[in-house]
Amino acid sequence: MSDTTSVPKAPAASSEKLSWYRKLYLRVEALSSTKHALAAMLVVSVVDGSFFPVPPFALLVPMVMAQPKKWLRYAVMGTVASLAGGLLGYWLGTLINAGAVSFLNIDLNMRVQRFGIDASLGDLLGQNFWVLALLCSVLPTPFKVVAIGSGMVSVPLDRFFLAAIIGRTIRFMAVSGVMRFAGPTARKWLRV
């Protein structure tokens, strides 16, 4: 006798063997049809900012398609959870930075004086990387790379967080809104 409350299994491959990533992605997507879908999306959103290889949109898209009237709620909750995960990823990046800088004996106060630039290496990375963090928060870049990278290069926390708020809000609202208003046809061309 099988347990009816278990998570549905990922669909079997027709003739090709699925990679571990694709299997994981399909298992996460299968969670979208369970009563725990919202909780799963929030957990995936948090850990997406630090280490999880599957984006929360694997759950968000089927959830919005199943309940289109809740698109805004899902987008807002996913954004907030993703920002919490981003802060966790940023903290991990600062730990990596501290370890790498001391282990590799890197001097972030070293001056760069080339091409009309006169600033320390730490200033160049930390003060300007937030623009990249903003772009990568919107684009289909793994958010964990943005968050950990920002912490590693010492982007000021307020700049990282502002970039993450803007970027993740745009991304979650866009994906959720497109799925709400364009429906199933959008899924064919929307890559999340």
Any key phrases for this structure?
elongated; disordered N terminus; mainly alpha; 192 residues; 66% helix; two-stranded antiparallel ribbon
Global structural class: mainly alpha
Task: Identify the strand order in the major beta sheet.
Answer: 1-2
Mean residue pLDDT:
79
Total discrete domains: 1
Write the layout of secondary structure elements.
Blueprint: H1 20-30, H2 37-48, H3 57-66, H4 71-104, E1 111-114, E2 117-120, H5 121-138, H6 143-152, H7 157-182, H8 184-189
Antiparallel strand pairs: 1-2
Helix pairs in contact: 2-3, 2-4, 3-7, 4-6, 4-7, 5-6, 5-7
InterPro entries: DedA_domain, VTT_dom
Keywords: Membrane, Transmembrane, Transmembrane helix
Pfam families: VTT_dom (PF09335)
Describe the structure.
The structure is a single chain. The longest helix has 34 residues, at 71-104. The chain has one domain. With 192 residues, the protein is mainly alpha-helical. The protein has 8 helices and 2 strands, in the order H-H-H-H-E-E-H-H-H-H. Residues 1-5 have low confidence and may be disordered. 66% of the residues lie in helices and 4% in strands. A hairpin with a 2-residue loop joins strand 1 and strand 2. Strands 1-2 form a two-stranded antiparallel ribbon.
